[in-house]
């Protein structure tokens, strides 16, 4: 019974941390997670598929996923989320060292990103 209580308390603490992280990120030394919005260029050539690699303990992952979902409506791409929390096979295969990671057309963006950064990444061939 004590194990269940400890597990439940851990899950509650984790969810709470992810929820309050945007408000305390500066205090924790991560800097701001404020968004920098951007308008999508009218003739922007976007990508067709985006994969976002996440983990359940990642405080940046929900922020980036929300920004990608908003851009998905404007740029019309397929968005796939892959939780790698317990997926060592994917971590090794992709060489992931942190999350979130955004993959599209063989290119990768690692870490937090503003909407402006995501628009540039998703509409620019490099």
Description of the molecule:
This protein has helices at 2-24, 61-75, 88-94, 115-123, and strands spanning 49-54, 78-83, 101-104, 107-110. It is globular. The chain starts with a helix and ends with a helix. The protein has a 4-stranded mixed β-sheet, covered by helices on one side. The chain is built from 4 helices and 4 strands, in the order H-E-H-E-H-E-E-H. It has a single domain (35-123), classed as 3-Layer(aba) Sandwich (Glutaredoxin), CATH 3.40.30. It is of the alpha+beta class and 126 residues long.
Task: Set out the fold topology.
Elements: H1 2-24, E1 49-54, H2 61-75, E2 78-83, H3 88-94, E3 101-104, E4 107-110, H4 115-123
Parallel strand pairs: 1-2
Antiparallel strand pairs: 1-3, 3-4
Which descriptors apply to this entry?
single chain; 126 residues; alpha+beta; Glutaredoxin; four-stranded mixed β-sheet; 4 helices
Reported for the largest beta sheet, the result is: 4 strands, mixed
Q: Looking across the biggest beta sheet, what order are the strands in? A: 2-1-3-4
Beta-strand proportion: 15-25%
* CATH topology title: Glutaredoxin
Specify the oligomeric state: single chain
């Amino acid at each position: 019974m004590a194990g269940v209580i400890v597990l439940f308390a851990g899950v509650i603490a984790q969810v709470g941390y992810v929820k309050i992280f945007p408000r305390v990120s500066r205090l924790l030394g991560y800097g701001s997670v404020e968004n920098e919005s951007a308008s999508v260029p009218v003739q922007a050539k976007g990508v067709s598929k985006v994969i976002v690699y996440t983990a359940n303990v990642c405080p940046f992952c929900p922020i980036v996923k929300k920004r990608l979902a908003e851009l998905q409506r404007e740029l019309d791409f397929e968005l796939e989320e892959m939780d790698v929390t317990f997926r060592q096979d994917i971590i090794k295969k992709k060489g992931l060292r942190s999350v979130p990671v955004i993959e599209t057309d063989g290119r990768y963006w690692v870490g937090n990103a503003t909407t402006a950064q995501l628009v540039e990444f998703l509409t620019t061939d490099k």
